[in-house]
C-alpha cells in the first residue's frame, strides 16, 4: 500500500541524508541505479511516494557531487529523456520536473558541512545549463499541458534560490510573464517572477 511504500522511500532518504558515512562507496552506483528505476516505476503511481524517492535521489546527488558524480543533473535529464519501458512520456517528464524541483530545495535543508555546501552550490550552478533549455522548451511548447507548465514554473522558482544570475534565466522570466495570461498558471508564474527578481544577484 502507498503508506508502506512512502515509509520505505522516507527511510531511504533518511539513511542517505543523515547517515551518509555509513554507506560504503562501492554501493553508490547501485543505489543510484535502483533509485532511478524506482522513480521510473512510480512515475505513473503514487505522487507522495514518487516525491520521497526524488528527494532521496536528490540527497544522493548532493552527497556525491561534484567528485563522485560529476554532471549529476545532466545525467538525470538524459536518463528521463530516453525512451524507457512502459512509462509514458508525460509521466516521465513530470517525474523529471519533480526531481529537478526538489534538488535545490534539498540543498537548502541539507546537513552538508559548510565547506561542502560551497562546492556543491558551485556544481549546481554550473548544472543550470542542463536545466534551462529543458524548462524553456517545455514552457514555450504550444502543446504542453497546463500541469507541465505549472511544474516548470515551480522548478524555476526552486532553482533561482541558488542565486542563478538573472541574465542566465531571462528567457524563462519572459515566458513566466506570458504565462500570467493563463488563469491556471497565474499564481505559480507570479511566484516564479517574484523569486527570480528577489535574489540579491538580480538587483
Number of helices: 9
Binned, the helix content reads over 70%
Helices and strands, in N-to-C order?
HHHHHHHHH
The largest β sheet comes out as: none
Strand content: under 5%
Shape: globular
By helix and strand content, what is the structural category?
A: mainly alpha
Protein name: Exportin-1/Importin-beta-like domain-containing protein
Subcellular location: Nucleus
Domain Exportin-1/Importin-beta-like: 47-192
InterPro entries: ARM-like, ARM-type_fold, Exportin-1/Importin-b-like, Importin_beta-like_NTR
Task: Please explain how this structure is put together.
- The protein has 203 residues and is an all-alpha fold.
- Helix content is 72%, strand content 0%.
- It contains nine helices and no strands.
- Helix 1 packs parallel to helix 3.
- It is globular and about 50 Å long.
- The chain starts with a helix and ends in a 5-residue tail after the last helix.
- InterPro entries: ARM-like (IPR011989), ARM-type_fold (IPR016024), Exportin-1/Importin-b-like (IPR013598), Importin_beta-like_NTR (IPR051345).
- Belongs to the importin beta family.
- Its main location: nucleus.
Amino acid at each position: 500500500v502507498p503508506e508502506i511504500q512512502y515509509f520505505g522511500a522516507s527511510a531511504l532518504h533518511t539513511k542517505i541524508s543523515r547517515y551518509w558515512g555509513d554507506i560504503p562507496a562501492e554501493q553508490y552506483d547501485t543505489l543510484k541505479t535502483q533509485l532511478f528505476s524506482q522513480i521510473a516505476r512510480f512515475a505513473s503511481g503514487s505522487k507522495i511516494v514518487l516525491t520521497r524517492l526524488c528527494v532521496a535521489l536528490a540527497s544522493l546527488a548532493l552527497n556525491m557531487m561534484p567528485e563522485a558524480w560529476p554532471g549529476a543533473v545532466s545525467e538525470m535529464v538524459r536518463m528521463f529523456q530516453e525512451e524507457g519501458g512502459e512509462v509514458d512520456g508525460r509521466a516521465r517528464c513530470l517525474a523529471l520536473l519533480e526531481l529537478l524541483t526538489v534538488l535545490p530545495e534539498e540543498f537548502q535543508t541539507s546537513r552538508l558541512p559548510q565547506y561542502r555546501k560551497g562546492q556543491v552550490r558551485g556544481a549546481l550552478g554550473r548544472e543550470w545549463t542542463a536545466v534551462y533549455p529543458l524548462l524553456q522548451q517545455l514552457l514555450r511548447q504550444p502543446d504542453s499541458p497546463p500541469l507541465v507548465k505549472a511544474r516548470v514554473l515551480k522548478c524555476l522558482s526552486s532553482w533561482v534560490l541558488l542565486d542563478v544570475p538573472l541574465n542566465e534565466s531571462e528567457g524563462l522570466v519572459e515566458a513566466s510573464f506570458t504565462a500570467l495570461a493563463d488563469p491556471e498558471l497565474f499564481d505559480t508564474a507570479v511566484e516564479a517572477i517574484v523569486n527570480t527578481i528577489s535574489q540579491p544577484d538580480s538587483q
